[in-house]
User: Fold these one by one.
Assistant:
Number 1:
Amino acid sequence: MKKSLVVIPTYNEVESIGSLLDELAHLDVDVLVIDDGSPDGTAQICRAHGVEVLERNGKQGLGSAYRAGFQIALDRGYENIIEMDADGSHQVSDLVKMMEWIGTADLLIGSRWVTDGKIANWSKFRELLSKSANRYANIVLSLGVADTTAGFRIYSGALLAKMDIQTIASEGYCFQIEMTRRALARGGTIAEIPITFIEREHGVSKMSFAIAFEAVVRITAWGFLRIFGR
Ligand SMILES: Nc1nc2c(ncn2[C@@H]2O[C@H](COP(=O)(O)OP(=O)(O)OP(=O)(O)O)[C@@H](O)[C@H]2O)c(=O)[nH]1
Ligand SMILES: [Mg+2]
C-alpha cells in the first residue's frame, strides 16, 4: 500500500478516465474509483487498467461518493487522501505540484481563484457562477478561502479522521464548501495552490440548477446559524 490514495468519483466518464489512470500510474499513489453504475462502461475501463473500483447501484451524488471513498481511505490508514475529478478538468501535472506541498497544511486546495490560478474553456456564465458562489460563501461564512468549491484537494488523513465525514450532508459542489467549513472547525490548516482548471471537452456536465440551489440554501442557512449562534 502506498501513502496516498486518489479517490475519483465517476459517472459516465468513459472518454476521459483511461488517460487519467494512465497518467496517475506514473505517480506514487494508489487509486480508488467510486463509480455509480455508469451505463457507459467506465468501471470496466478502470478494471482493465488494474484500478480498484467501488461500484454502487445508480447515481447517488458526488457527496455520497466522496463519503464512501474517504471512509475506505480512513479505514485503510492512508496518510494523504486526494480528490480529483475524472472529466479532465484536473491535471496530473498540477497534482504533482500540489503533492510537493504535503505537510505544509492539513488541507491543500488546487485553486482557480488565487494568483496564477487559471481556467480554460469556461463560459463567462460558469466563471461568474463559480466566482459568485465563492464570494457569497466567503462573505456569509468568513472562510478566508478563495476557492471553497474546488474539488481538487489533498486532505491529511489525520485531519480527515477528525472531520466526522458521515455527517457531511451536502450532495452537490456544496459538499466542498461544507468540507472546508468542517476542516476549519476542527482546527485544520488550509493552503491554496494555483492550478489550471480545464473545463471538460468530453462527456456531460452533472452541474444542474438543483446543485447550485442546494449551495445557496445551505450557505444561507449556515450564515444564519453563525449570526444567531448555535
Ligand atoms: N460516483 C459519482 N460520481 C459523480 C456523480 N456526479 C458527478 N460525478 C463525478 O464527479 C466529477 C465532477 O463532476 P462534473 O460533472 O465534472 O461536475 P462539475 O465539475 O461540477 O461540472 P462540469 O465540469 O461542468 O461537468 C466527475 O468525475 C463526475 O463523473 C455521482 O452522482 N456519482
Ligand atoms: Mg467537471
Note: The two ends are 42 Å apart (CA to CA).
Number 2:
Amino acid sequence: MLDRYLTQISFPKLFPEGQRKIRSTSVAVVGVGGTGSHISELMVRMGFGKVKIVDHDTVELSNLNRQSLYDEEDIGRPKVYAAHEKLTKINREVEVIPVNLKVTEENADEILGDVNIIMDGTDSFGTRGVLNKFSIEKEKIFIFSAVEGSSGMAKAIIPGRTACLECIGYPTTGDSIPCSVNGLIPSVVEIAASISVTLAIKSILGYAEDEIIVFDSWDFSLEKIKTKKNPHCEVCGFKA
Ligand SMILES: [Zn+2]
C-alpha cells in the first residue's frame, strides 16, 4: 500500500491526512472520452476509494489520438466496459464501476447519488447544466472542465462556498460544438484532466479557491480568474 503511493504521500500537503481522505472519497467521472480517460486513470492510480465511470458512447477510431484508455481492439465496444477493464488492471485496490448510461435530470440521483465528487468529462452544455444543478442540490463537489482547440478551463464548484456554472454565465443548455469543428490538440485534454484532479484533491483537503483556471497548451499560458457566487443565482442563490 505505502510503496504504491509513496511519492504522493511524501508531498507535504498530502501528508499524513491526504491519502486517507483520497482513499475515503468516491468519485464519478461523467464522460470517459479525452479528458475523462485521463481523469479516471489518474484517480485510479492515486487510490481514490471508488471511481464510477459513466458514458453511453462506443469507442471509435477517431477517439484513439487522445482517449488514453482505449486501443484499436476496443473499437465498437462501449467505452465504460473497455475503460473498466484497463482501470482494474492499473489498481485493483480501487472499486471501478462502469455505468453505460447518459446522465439526465431524471436518472442523476440514481447514478450519482452515492459519490462525493462529480468530475466533468462531458462535452455537452446540457449535461454540464444537469451536473451543476445536481451538485448544488445534493451538496456534492463538482469539478467542471472544458476544452476546445488548444485551450481549456477548469473550476471547482463547492456548494455554498463557490460560484457555480450559472453564477459565471457558462452555458448550461444544449449540445457543445463537436470537437471535429474547431479541432482539438490532444495534449489539451491531459492538461485539463491534470488540473481537474488537482482541483478535486484541493477541494477535499480545503485548499480550493473560488476561481476558474484558463489555459492554452499552444501558447503555454495559464491564468487564474477570481469568481464570485451570485446571491441571485437561479441554481445556487438560495444556499448560504
Ligand atoms: Zn450559482
Note: The beta strands are 26-30, 50-54, 95-99, 117-120, 141-148, 151-157, 211-216, 221-226.
